[in-house]
Every structure is written in C-alpha cells, then in structure tokens.
C-alpha cells in the first residue's frame, strides 16, 4: 500500500506562476537524491516546494514528509523533528539518528527539509548520513544557502519575472510576467474586482520592478490596495526604498539590493501597523512554529497592550499578511514567515534583549500552565483533543525546554515541565523525545527536589516501555527514596507503577504482585494521578491473569472500568479491556474476548496508542485462529508485525504476549497452509490505522483500503481542484457555484479527512491517483 504522509503542513494561499520551476523541481528530484532550493528571503522557496510536493507524491511509495525547521533552534533537535514528521514510534532505546536510518533503510520516501539555514551544519551531517546509509531516500531542502553535502544539486530560486523598463507591455501582461499576475491576484483579494488594465498596468509593472519581483514584498504591497492606489503605492515605496538604500550605503555598502528591497517592504508594513499590532508582531516573534490566540494573549499582552486588544491586533496582522492563519474552521492557529519573524525579533531586541527574555519567559510560563492543565484533564473524556493540542504545541514546548536549559536559574522549571509531560510521551509512544528531554534535564539539575523525583520516575516509565528494566529499576527506587525524604507521599505513590513494572518485565511475577497488592491496599492520595492508580489495577490484573487467576483478574478490570466509564476516560480503559480480553481468551470465552478486544482497539485508536494497538491486534488474531478464521488471523499478525518492526520491539518483553502470538500463528498456518504467506504480507502492508479498521470490520479487504473515500462525488471533485492549486474563488468559478459554497466544500473535506491544510488534501489526492486502477 502507498503510505502518503505529509509532516506539519502549512496552509498556503493561491499559487501564481512558477510552472517552469515546478517542472524543474520534479525533474531534479527524479534525477538526484539531494536537491537544494536556495535563494534570498521572501523569494518563495517554501511556497514552491509546497506547490511541487503533491506532484511528487506519486513517485514515492512510502510518502513525502515535510519537516518544518523554522521553529527548531537547537541543532540537536533536527533528528527528533524528522522522527516526529515520519510519525516514528520507536521504543528500542537507540539514538535518534540510528532510529531514522533503520526506519528509512527499506523505504522509498522524500524528505523535505524546509527553512534549515540556521541549522545548516546539523542538517548537512544528518542528510549526508541518511543518504549514505539508505538506498531509496531522497531529500529536498530549502535554505538561503546550499547544504555542505557532496553530490547535491542546487536550484537557485529566482524572483518572479518583471518587464524590462521601457519595454512595451504585451496585450495580456499577467500571462507573461508572474510578478504582475501575483500582484493582481493578491490585490483582488483585498479589493474585489481589481484586475490589470491599460490604465494601471504600467504602474503595477514599475511597482513589481521596484520590489525586484520578490513574492513576499509584492504580497505585502498588494495588501495596501485596500487604502491606496497603485501609483500612490509606488511613490511611497520608492521613497521608503531610497531612504533605506541611503542608510545601508552610508553604513556598510555591502547590503544586497534584494535584501534592501524586502527590508523596505517590511519596514513600510511595520510603519503602517497600529502600535498594538507592532507590539504583537515583536513579542510573537519568539514563538517557535505556530501558536493559538490563547498563547498570544498570555505572551504578548502587557505594557502597551491589554488582553482585550489582542484579537483586533492579531486580525490586523493577518489582514496585512504579516501573520498567516493556519488550522481549520474550528482550531485557528497563526504563524509568521521566517523573514517577518526575524524582523520582529530584531525589533524586540532593540533594548538589548531584555524584552526578548521577558517574552521567552512568558512562553515558558504558558507552556508550564498548559501542560499542567492537560495533565489535570487527562483522566477524562478529552484525551483525543488533548493529544491533538499537545502535538500542535510541540514546537513551542521544545523552545521552552531549550530556554530552560540555556538560561541561568530556569532548570527547575524545565524539570517540572518535563515531569508533567510523562503521560503524553507514554501514551503516544513518543519515548525517544521523552527520554531526550528528561535525561538532559536530570543531568543538568541534580538538586534534590520534588520535580526531580517526578522526572526520575517519568524517565523510568520511558525506559520500561523500551524494555530496559535494568536501568529503570534504580531510577524509580531513587525517585521513591527522594520523594519520601522530601515528605511528598503523592510522588512516592506514583512510583508504584514503575517499581512493579520493572519486576514484571524481569519475569519476577511474585514480587511484582506484592508491589501492586501493597499499592492497592492504600486509598489514593489527594492529588495522585488517577491514570497511575488505574495502571496499578491494570498490572495487578495482568499478573493475576499470567498466574491463571482469571476470575480475580477480570473482577479487578471490571472494578476500575466503572471508574473509567464514570469519568469518560479512554486510555487506561483500553488497557483494562485488553487484560480483560486476554483473561477471557485464556479461559476459552471467545465471544467476550472478541468483543472486548475490538472495544479496546477503538479506544486505542482515539488516543493514538500504537504499541497497545499492536498487542491487541495479536490477541484478536488469536481469537480468530481459535474460531477457525485463518485469513483475518494471518492479516492481523502481519499488521502487528509491521508495528513491531517500525518500533523495533522485542515481542518477548511482554509476558502475556509470547503465548498469544505463538498460538495465533500456529493456528493460522494450520488453517491456511500455503495461503498464510500472502495473507500475512497483506497485513504487513497495512498502516496502523488501516489495520485497526480491518480488525473492526470497517473494511472488507486489506488490499484496497486507500481507495475507499469518505468524500462525496462533489467533494472528490473539489479535492482534485485543490490538488491543482486553485483558490476557493477559482474553484467556485470552475464549478459555477457561490464562493461560500466552495468554502463549505473545502471545510467539509478538511474535517472528513482529519487534515488542517490544503496541501495535505493535495498530497492525499495525488496518492489516490497513483494507485487508482
């Protein structure tokens, strides 16, 4: 099956021109394993890549993955950014670079590294390693300068073509000069009905020449058409440009003309902003990646800006194309283009860096409050939404960690932040990232604090999930001793899960049972995590089932299931259902085991628990095999194997796992004979989501899951037009419908597919075309 993915896509407006460049990008990527798109800031490198990606997707069986690096400040985070974009959930404990190499070794993928000039050395080292260690991976990078890697092919992205001064314009200048077409398109967005005419085209041509054909500068100028005419725009911009050029020449004389052009356009946009908008622009420049309005209110409000003024200021920046609105109709997010963000940082640093330090500390405070709130709400009905939000804020949280590690006096706050994220890293399988931050912060902050105790047992949980009981056991004991020494009984109670887990993984069932029996003999403390209380039930039931005490194991599961149902909790509930299904299967109650295993899968899908999904797929395979259903058993075994391969998990680490898998495979082979191999391969080709859908009976055949579509015929038609790069207005014109009708179709498509950007729809559409019979 084709696995079309796109990492952290961004919403873009309509694409104008660049037909030849798009074709050249496609040709170069087909011919070279490393292609670098270079060019000055504002020339449109990212826009060109996002336009080319859907047209490249069909050539890569394992997907195109976009890695947005603009928000990554620490060079050591580059491998982690790729791991997240590739949706890798690896529990082997290897280095991030080794994880990437092993994951990509047999994959045919295109990695798009966008905006990596500030991480040039790290990107160059990683790309060189990946290309040397893999055979079918290709890389497309955007940067102001080429990577320092041999055998790369560099394509310098040039500004959009403009007419030569004094040259007569052709009858339809927009067709021959993309700069003019771009200005007309963006001007029409703010001044409906605007078009190039004999009266204005000479002025537009002169304006685009003055802006050196730089797309970002043209877009910033076009926004001013709401208040000014073209000639007025040209006169004011010309005056601004001369002042900046005189200043640069007198200062150094070595500023490139295009840099001065962009600076003039951005300077002018800044001057036309209200004081409130200027304040938000400067303070929001510390955000890594995208942010929502709540974060903006916490970080940007203060002297010179009341929280009540924030919405108008943000809206004003969006109207002026200084903020880009991302997200969907429900969840609005904002981001800055890198050139705009850097300008804001320069303004913020005008007082010697004091304002920047304040803003970054506010980001830290916001992240800590946000994560603590997520942890408080985790044991409840909002888990899928919390996972979505935590993923969305990952760049911001990483920037807070970097601030804490690099700023004197902030280590304790960083340790506290990491300690409160244990549930997210644990539940979603982001163990590589969890270990990365916890290990760095624990090494940097050895002082005996409650935050350290929590971080110690949090790291132990990451290690236990990776099967490393040898290292986890002393960490969790250290956490318990420290918590008791500090008089914090809640943190001491939190260590029971890890203490018992280390014994369980080591096969010491008797001592593990004693730890969990002791834990459950005491009522939960006020403030104790209900998720960790639930895990005490899960693991005691697990040990009891292994030891053959099925009825007591099932009773424990049912007892805490009622708590989960009362709170609307899904993550712990899914583990209880799996242990319940295992005990029922072991007792021979196939019907109940099938029902509970499927119910477990539904919950695990909602919170993205990949590893729990793999274990449950194999349990369900064993149920099918006992019921004489060989083909679904083999398909599910293959699907689980794919999860284990991607995660590099040794399956014998889970005590209840080996016998289940062995019986399922032996039964399926006996039922299918020579047909086992093809059914098993069918499962190997499934993504985790498609495997769950198959297990739940939502797809009849695992061989054609990607061809099924939730879209109506009209929505499919609109998706095809999105893949062509059409705007909503152009879609409305093509289909002869109202603009609002076209917008409604686009919003429903994004919602049905679970996407947040038009570029994702384009990649999805191209992927379907590539495998359509």
UniProtKB/TrEMBL annotation:
<dbReference type="Pfam" id="PF13424">
    <property type="entry name" value="TPR_12"/>
</dbReference>
<feature type="domain" description="HTH luxR-type">
    <location>
        <begin position="704"/>
        <end position="769"/>
    </location>
</feature>
<dbReference type="InterPro" id="IPR019734">
    <property type="entry name" value="TPR_rpt"/>
</dbReference>
<dbReference type="InterPro" id="IPR036388">
    <property type="entry name" value="WH-like_DNA-bd_sf"/>
</dbReference>
<dbReference type="GO" id="GO:0006355">
    <property type="term" value="P:regulation of DNA-templated transcription"/>
</dbReference>
<dbReference type="InterPro" id="IPR000792">
    <property type="entry name" value="Tscrpt_reg_LuxR_C"/>
</dbReference>
<dbReference type="GO" id="GO:0003677">
    <property type="term" value="F:DNA binding"/>
</dbReference>
<dbReference type="Pfam" id="PF25872">
    <property type="entry name" value="HTH_77"/>
</dbReference>
<feature type="repeat" description="TPR">
    <location>
        <begin position="493"/>
        <end position="526"/>
    </location>
</feature>
<dbReference type="InterPro" id="IPR027417">
    <property type="entry name" value="P-loop_NTPase"/>
</dbReference>
<dbReference type="InterPro" id="IPR058852">
    <property type="entry name" value="HTH_77"/>
</dbReference>
<dbReference type="InterPro" id="IPR016032">
    <property type="entry name" value="Sig_transdc_resp-reg_C-effctor"/>
</dbReference>
<keyword id="KW-0802">TPR repeat</keyword>
<dbReference type="Pfam" id="PF00196">
    <property type="entry name" value="GerE"/>
</dbReference>
<dbReference type="InterPro" id="IPR011990">
    <property type="entry name" value="TPR-like_helical_dom_sf"/>
</dbReference>
<protein>
    <submittedName>
        <fullName>LuxR C-terminal-related transcriptional regulator</fullName>
    </submittedName>
</protein>
């Amino acid at each position: 099956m084709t696995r079309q993915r796109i990492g952290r896509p961004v919403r873009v407006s309509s694409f104008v021109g660049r037909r030849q460049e798009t074709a050249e990008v496609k040709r170069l990527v087909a011919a070279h394993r490393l292609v670098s798109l270079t060019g000055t800031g504002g020339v449109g490198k990212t826009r060109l890549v996002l336009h080319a990606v859907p047209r490249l997707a069909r050539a890569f069986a394992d997907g195109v993955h976009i890695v947005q690096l603009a928000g990554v400040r620490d060079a050591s985070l580059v491998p982690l950014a790729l791991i997240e974009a590739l949706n890798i959930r690896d529990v082997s404990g290897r280095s991030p670079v080794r994880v990437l190499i092993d994951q990509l070794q047999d994959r045919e993928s295109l990695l798009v590294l966008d905006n990596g000039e500030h991480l040039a050395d790290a990107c160059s080292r990683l790309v060189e390693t990946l290309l040397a260690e893999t055979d079918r991976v290709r890389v497309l990078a955007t940067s102001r300068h080429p990577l320092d890697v041999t055998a790369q092919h560099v394509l310098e992205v040039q500004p959009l073509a403009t007419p030569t001064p004094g040259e007569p314009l052709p009858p339809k200048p927009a067709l021959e000069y993309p700069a003019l077409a771009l200005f007309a398109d963006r001007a029409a967005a703010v001044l409906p009905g605007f078009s190039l005419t004999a009266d204005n085209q000479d002025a537009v041509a002169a304006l685009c020449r003055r802006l050196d054909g730089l797309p970002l500068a043209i877009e910033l100028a076009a926004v001013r058409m709401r208040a000014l005419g073209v000639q007025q725009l040209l006169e004011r911009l010309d005056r601004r440009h001369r002042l900046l050029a005189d200043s640069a020449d007198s200062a150094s004389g070595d500023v490139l003309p295009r840099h001065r052009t962009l600076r003039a356009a951005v300077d002018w946009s800044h001057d036309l902003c209200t004081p409130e908008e200027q304040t938000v622009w400067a303070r929001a420049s510390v955000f890594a990646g995208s942010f929502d309005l709540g974060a903006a209110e916490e970080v940007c409000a203060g002297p010179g800006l009341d929280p009540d003024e924030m919405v108008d200021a943000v809206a004003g920046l969006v109207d002026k194309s200084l903020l880009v609105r991302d997200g969907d109709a429900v969840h609005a997010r904002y981001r800055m283009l890198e050139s705009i963000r850097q300008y804001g940082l320069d303004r913020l640093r005008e007082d010697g860096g004091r304002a920047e330090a304040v803003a970054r500390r506010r980001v830290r405070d916001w992240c800590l409050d946000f994560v603590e709130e997520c942890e408080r709400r985790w044991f409840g009905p909002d888990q899928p939404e919390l996972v979505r939000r935590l993923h969305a804020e990952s760049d911001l949280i990483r920037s807070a960690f970097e601030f804490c590690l690099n700023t004197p006096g902030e280590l304790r706050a960083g340790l506290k932040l990491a300690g409160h994220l244990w549930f997210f890293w644990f539940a979603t399988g982001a163990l590589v990232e969890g270990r990365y931050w916890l290990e760095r912060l624990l090494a940097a902050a050895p002082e005996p604090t409650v935050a350290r105790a929590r971080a110690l047992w949090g790291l132990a949980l990451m290690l236990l999930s990776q099967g490393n009981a040898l290292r986890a056991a002393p960490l969790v004991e250290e956490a318990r001793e420290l918590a008791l020494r500090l008089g914090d009984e809640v943190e001491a109670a939190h260590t029971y899960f890890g203490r018992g887990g280390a014994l369980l993984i080591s096969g010491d069932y008797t001592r593990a049972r004693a730890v969990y029996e002791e834990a459950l003999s005491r009522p939960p403390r006020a403030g104790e995590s209900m998720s960790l209380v639930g895990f005490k039930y899960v693991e005691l039931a697990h040990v009891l089932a292994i030891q053959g005490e099925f009825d007591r194991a099932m009773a424990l599961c049912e007892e805490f299931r009622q708590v989960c149902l009362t709170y609307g909790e899904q993550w712990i509930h899914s583990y209880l259902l799996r242990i319940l299904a295992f005990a029922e299967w072991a007792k021979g109650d196939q019907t109940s085991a099938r029902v509970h295993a499927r119910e477990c899968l539904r919950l695990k899908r909602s919170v993205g628990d990949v590893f729990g999904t793999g274990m449950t797929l194999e349990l369900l395979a064993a149920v099918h095999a006992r019921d004489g259903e060989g083909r679904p058993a083999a398909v599910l075994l293959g699907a689980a194997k794919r999860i284990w391969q991607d995660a590099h998990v040794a399956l014998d680490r889970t005590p209840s796992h080996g016998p289940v898998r062995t019986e399922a495979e032996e039964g399926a082979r006996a039922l299918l004979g020579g047909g086992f191999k093809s059914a098993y391969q069918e499962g190997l080709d499934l993504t985790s989501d498609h495997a769950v859908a198959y297990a739940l009976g939502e797809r009849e055949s695992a061989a054609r899951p990607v061809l099924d579509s939730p879209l109506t015929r009209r929505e499919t038609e609109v998706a095809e037009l999105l893949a062509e790069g059409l705007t909503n207005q152009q879609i409305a014109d093509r289909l002869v419908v109202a603009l609002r009708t076209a917008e409604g179709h686009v919003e429903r498509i994004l919602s049905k597919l679970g996407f947040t950007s038009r570029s994702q729809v384009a990649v999805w559409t191209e992927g379907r075309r590539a495998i359509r019979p």
